[in-house]
Design brief:
single chain, 140 residues, mainly beta, Umud Fragment, subunit A, two-stranded antiparallel ribbon, 1 helix, LexA/Signal_pep-like_sf, hydrolase activity, DNA damage, DNA repair, autocatalytic cleavage
Length: 140
C-alpha cells in the first residue's frame, strides 16, 4: 500500500538516550537523557518525495527487512550500487539490493533462497526509489 509522507506530520518527540542499550540486563537510563527524537525527522528527510510501503515476503531478511515491516522510500535519492531500492519490473514492485558493475545491472535478494534478477539488453528496470529505513511493530 502506497502512502505519501505527511507534509506536516504531528510532532512526536520521544526521549533519545545518549548511550547504547545492552540487550543483556536492565539499566537505569533516566540519568542519560540527551534530547528528544522525532521519528518523522529521523526517517523522513524529504517529505515531498518520501513514501511508505509494507513488505510482503522474505527475500530481504538478510538485510533485516521482514514480512510486515514498513519501508521508508525516498524518490529524490539517486540510486547507487549497493543501495536497497524499490524497483518496478514488468509493472510489479520489488525490494532488492542494486548491483551495478561494468554496465551490468542486477537486483539481489538478501536471502540465499532467491537468485539474482539479471536484466538483458531489451528489458527495462525502473528504480522507483531508495529505501532509507524500515520500522516494525512487535505487538499489533
Amino acid at each position: 500500500m502506497l502512502q505519501r509522507a505527511k507534509l506536516n506530520p504531528p510532532f512526536c518527540a520521544l526521549p533519545l538516550l545518549q548511550f547504547r542499550i545492552p540487550a543483556g540486563f536492565p539499566s537505569p537510563a533516566d540519568d542519560y537523557k540527551e534530547k528528544s527524537l522525532d521519528i518523522n525527522d529521523y526517517l523522513v528527510r524529504n517529505k515531498a518525495s518520501t513514501y511508505f510501503f509494507r513488505v510482503v515476503g522474505d527475500s530481504m531478511t538478510g538485510a533485516h527487512i521482514h514480512d510486515g515491516d514498513m519501508l521508508v522510500v525516498d524518490r529524490s535519492i539517486k540510486p547507487k550500487h549497493g543501495h536497497i531500492v524499490l524497483a518496478v519490473i514488468n509493472n510489479e514492485y520489488t525490494v532488492k539490493r542494486l548491483y551495478s558493475c561494468n554496465g551490468v545491472i542486477e537486483l539481489h535478494a538478501a536471502n540465499p533462497a532467491y537468485p539474482p534478477i539479471r536484466f538483458r539488453e531489451n528489458e527495462e528496470l525502473q528504480v522507483w526509489g531508495v529505501v532509507v529505513g524500515t520500522f516494525a511493530r512487535f505487538i499489533v
